Each structure stands twice: as structure tokens, then as C-alpha cells.
């Protein structure tokens, strides 16, 4: 692997705007004699990210190319990102493969993580009126914390920890911390980056007031991780406002709202997050791992009433149907006075993973989304929770009954779904009577 090098403080890789700016790249262009361009992953003001293949090692890579600029700070920031990444080896931190000059700029070859950002995952749940399942949320936070602690062990501060900078790998659910363009060594300062670095919704107070780059320590990343955890658990930011300045001002002077104001069942973690969001860095947990461990301990004390309340899993491939089922199922159960936790799946494989992660009181399945695994899902739900109930939506009730074989299901609802019928069926569930 080529180690990123920056002769004479990175001067070789400072970008300069010239008449021969970077030409558009497309297949089958090759960068540095070994990276064959396959397509574009994204682009922004700072440059472009390409999907490519290392033709020698035959592995996929992501190539970041910084856009030419007259501002030398742009090139220095890019060098900083390469140097920061090269020092960390951890499965939850994106790995750098090579760094070098390219045309009138520079390129960075990195591990290609195929998946979606944590921000996208949170947004998808928010649109459905749900939040990420607690077991999955905690597992993601735990892994990110391990990666962040590895970064801090190298005397680096990421400075832009947020859901958009965490990619969750498809198939493995491995979260990977990316975008180290703002990272810096604790022993150095770069005022130009410090003034503008970071994202307001996750920015620690000391980072927002850091004109000379000397006050930011790993505890600024702990603060940002706590903001990320708050959003992961609730779908909402700690501080909200109509503009950047309002949000920054809130981080500087306002006390964070308690997470229980949005999710009463999470009252046990109020104090943990409140401490991690302290305006005083020294009052926060000393490490990311310590923060997540405290969250896990507190979550073990979640109110027994909430724990015994209905947990619902909904399987529907169609987004509109899925949202409707979540909305109407949770509304019907809450109408009977219950707190409801609802998780969703788009495929039988996702539903299987959900049900295996913990017992659900109610499994709502669109038969057309079950991929022929309807009976298997029902049996798994009942194996994980003795009193699990199942509600199946079907366009052909006799065929569905036949497909279930010896597996008996009492509650079958014909499609298209009539919301009044759905509410009536839910009202007859044993779990409603059991929790009355």
C-alpha cells in the first residue's frame, strides 16, 4: 500500500486553479496507472468521488479527487485527510490505500464501502413514523465508538462525527466512519480549518469557539457522538432551528432537551446523554466506548411497563403500504392506551433478521413481500416470543392459508387494506386484552 506523503508540509499537493482544470473522468479512464474508473459516486464543491477498480489487486475502491482551487487550504485539508486515515487501522474506520498527485490536484484511493449513510437510514425511519430498532441502534453506536476510540488513540480528532459521515455496509451492517477532511492532530493547529470546520447540528461548544484550533480534544467527538445517538434514537436533532446561527447559539448556551421529552420510555438514558452533551468538555465521558457502555447499562433499566408494551414488526416491500401499516397499527394500539415500538422491514431477509434480534408481540406481514417464506417467518416469530401474534395481509386468502400449511394464523386481512377493518382486527388481538 502506498503511504500518503506530503513533502515539505504538503506543498506538492496544494491545488491551484489553472486553465487546464481536471477534465471529466469516465470509464475506461485510469488514474495513476492502476485505478480504472467505473463510475461516479458523488460530487460536491470540494471535488468528486469515483467508483473504481484497482486493476492490479482486482478490488473495488473509492477515489476522491479534490477540485482545483486558488486557496492552498483546500489542498492542505486534503493532505490532512490522507495523513489522518493512513494512521488508523480499524474495521469501523475507512481504510486508505494510496494518495498522490493527479493532473493539477490530488487523489485519495480508499476502501469502497457499499451501503447507505446512517443519515439516510434515520431519515427513512422518520418518513415511516418509526425509529431504528434499539438493539440495532446500540450495536451501530458501539461499533462507531470502537472506531472513534482508535482514531483518538492516534492523537487525532475527527471533528465532524455525524450520521452523514457513517456508512452502514449492506449485508454486514458494519458502520464505517468516513470523511476525515477536518481531522487534526491535537499537537497542531490550523486556524483556517478550525473556523469553518464541523457541522452545526453536532458541533461541541468549544469547537464552535475555536479560532486558533487549540481547544478541540477528543471530547468534542464524544459530544458529536452523543448528538448522533440522540438523533438515532429519536429521529430529531438535539437542537433545532431555522438557520445555522440559531443552532450554533443553542449549542453554545442552551441546555439540551431530555430524550425522554420525545421518547418517554428512554428516561433511563436521560442523564447519560445530558452528561455527554455538557458544555464543559471535562464533564463528558472520557472515551466514546465509555459513553456507549453507559448507554447500554442505562437501557438495561428501561421502564418495565414500556418493555412489556407491544413491540411490532412490519414487513411490506411497498413503501406506501409499509408507512400506512405502521401508522394505522401503532395508532390502533395506542388507542388502547399502549406505548408502541415499531420496526420495519422491506424484505423477508430483513424481517427474519429483525425477528431473530428479539421477540415481537405482533408481526404484520404483507404476504406478497414474504418471498415464499411466510410460514418460516410465523414460526420464527413464535419461537422468539411465546405469545407472538401474527396478522397477514393477502389478496388471495385461500391460497395464503394453503401456503401456511400446518402453521395456523387467526388474523388474515384482505387486500386492498381497509383501515377500519385493520383497526377492528387489532382490537381483537389477545395482546390488547392481555395488556388491558
Strand order of the largest sheet: 1-2-3-4-6-5
Q: Write the CATH homologous superfamily of the largest domain.
A: Transferase(Phosphotransferase) domain 1
- What is the CATH level 1 assignment of the largest domain? Mainly Alpha
What gap, in angstroms, lies between the N and C termini?
A: 63 Å
In the CATH scheme, what's the topology name of the largest domain?
Transferase(Phosphotransferase), domain 1
Q: Could you report the average pLDDT, rounded to the nearest whole number?
A: 83
Overall description:
The chain has 436 residues and is α/β, with parallel strands linked by helices. The chain folds into 3 domains: 82 residues, Phosphorylase Kinase, domain 1 (2-Layer Sandwich), CATH 3.30.200.20; 192 residues, Transferase(Phosphotransferase) domain 1 (Transferase(Phosphotransferase), domain 1, Orthogonal Bundle); 127 residues, Rossmann fold, CATH 3.40.50.2300. The protein has 17 helices and 16 strands. A 6-stranded antiparallel sheet has the order 1-2-3-4-6-5, covered by helices on one side. The chain starts with 6 loop residues before the first helix and ends with a helix. The N terminus is likely disordered.
Amino acid at each position: 500500500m502506498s503511504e500518503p506523503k506530503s513533502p515539505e508540509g504538503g506543498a506538492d499537493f496544494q491545488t491551484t486553479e489553472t486553465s487546464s482544470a481536471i477534465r471529466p473522468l469516465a470509464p475506461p479512464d485510469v488514474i495513476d496507472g492502476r485505478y480504472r474508473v467505473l463510475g461516479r459516486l458523488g460530487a460536491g464543491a470540494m471535488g468528486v468521488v469515483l467508483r473504481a477498480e484497482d486493476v492490479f489487486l482486482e478490488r473495488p475502491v473509492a477515489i476522491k479527487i479534490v477540485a482545483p482551487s486558488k486557496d492552498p487550504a483546500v489542498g492542505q485539508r486534503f493532505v490532512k485527510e490522507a495523513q489522518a486515515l493512513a494512521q488508523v487501522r480499524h474495521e469501523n474506520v475507512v481504510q486508505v490505500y494510496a494518495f498522490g498527485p493527479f493532473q493539477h490536484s490530488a487523489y485519495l484511493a480508499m476502501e469502497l464501502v457499499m451501503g447507505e449513510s446512517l443519515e439516510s437510514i434515520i431519515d427513512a425511519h422518520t418518513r415511516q413514523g418509526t425509529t431504528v430498532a434499539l438493539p440495532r441502534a446500540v450495536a451501530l453506536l458501539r461499533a462507531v465508538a470502537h472506531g472513534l476510540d482508535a482514531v483518538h488513540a492516534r492523537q487525532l480528532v475527527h471533528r465532524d462525527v455525524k450520521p452523514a459521515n457513517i456508512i452502514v455496509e449492506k449485508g454486514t451492517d458494519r458502520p464505517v466512519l468516513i470523511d476525515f477532511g477536518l481531522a487534526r492532530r491535537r499537537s497542531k493547529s490550523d486556524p483556517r480549518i478550525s473556523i469553518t470546520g464541523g457541522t452545526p447540528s453536532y458541533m461541541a461548544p468549544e469547537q464552535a469557539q475555536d479560532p486558533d484550533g487549540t481547544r478541540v480534544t477528543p471530547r468534542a467527538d464524544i459530544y458529536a457522538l452523543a448528538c448522533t445517538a440522540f438523533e438515532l434514537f429519536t429521529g430529531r436533532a438535539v437542537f433545532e432551528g431555522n438557520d445555522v446561527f440559531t443552532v450554533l447559539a443553542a449549542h453554545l448556551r442552551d441546555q439540551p432537551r431530555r430524550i425522554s421529552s420525545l421518547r418517554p420510555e428512554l428516561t433511563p438514558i436521560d442523564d447519560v446523554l445530558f452528561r455527554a452533551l455538557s458544555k464543559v468538555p471535562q464533564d463528558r465521558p472520557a472515551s466514546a466506548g465509555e459513553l456507549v457502555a453507559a448507554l447500554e447499562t442505562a437501557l438495561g433499566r428501561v421502564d418495565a411497563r414500556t418493555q412489556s408494551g407491544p413491540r411490532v414488526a412490519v414487513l411490506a416491500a411497498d413503501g406506501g403500504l409499509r408507512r400506512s401499516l405502521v401508522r394505522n397499527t401503532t395508532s390502533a394500539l395506542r388507542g388502547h392506551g399502549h406505548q408502541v415500538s415499531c420496526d420495519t422491514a422491506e424484505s423477508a431477509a430483513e424481517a427474519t433478521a429483525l425477528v431473530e434480534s428479539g421477540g415481537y408481540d405482533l408481526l404484520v406481514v404483507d404476504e406478497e413481500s414474504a418471498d415464499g417464506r411466510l410460514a418460516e417467518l410465523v414460526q420464527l416469530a413464535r419461537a422468539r416470543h411465546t405469545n407472538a401474534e401474527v396478522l397477514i395481509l393477502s389478496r388471495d386468502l385461500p391460497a395464503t392459508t394453503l401456503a401456511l400449511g400446518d402453521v395456523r394464523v387467526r388474523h388474515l386481512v384482505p387486500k386492498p387494506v381497509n383501515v377500519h377493518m385493520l383497526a377492528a382486527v387489532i382490537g381483537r388481538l389477545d395482546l390488547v386484552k392481555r395488556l388491558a
